[in-house]
Design brief:
Layout (H helix, E strand, L loop, with lengths): L4 H19 L9 H9 L6 H11 L3 H5 L14 H18 L7
Helix pairs in contact: 2-5, 3-5
């Protein structure tokens, strides 16, 4: 299947970000989409709509998480690719909490 210019641009920038992180001596990690789906929904076959529902449930349900214009919730105004970014961030955060901290020597 052919890919477009945007795919190559994404790959190039991913490499640049990893290079910058490594240059500073920090750890960088990759988190596959299937791992995010499995973490949030319990299935690698979950569609994006299920991931969105799982995120809304995690933040208190649709009404509380999204809120209204007068009383916005923490997820008010999130749309499109922001849901995928939030899913990735939540999964990464949860995995960091599950890893025991190491003591620096």
């Amino acid at each position: 299947m052919a890919v477009g210019r945007e795919v190559f641009e994404t790959v190039w920038w991913t490499g640049r970000f990893f290079e910058a992180v490594a240059r500073r001596g920090a750890n960088a990690s990759r988190l596959p989409r299937k791992a995010v789906k499995l973490h949030l929904c319990g299935s690698v076959r979950a569609p994006d709509s299920n991931i969105r529902i799982a995120l809304l449930d995690r933040f208190g349900g649709t009404e509380l998480a999204k809120g209204t214009k007068k009383a916005p919730g923490p997820l008010f105004g999130i749309k499109s690719h922001e849901w995928a970014a939030l899913a990735l961030a939540v999964t990464w955060w949860d995995q960091q909490l599950a890893v025991p901290a190491t003591v620096a020597r």
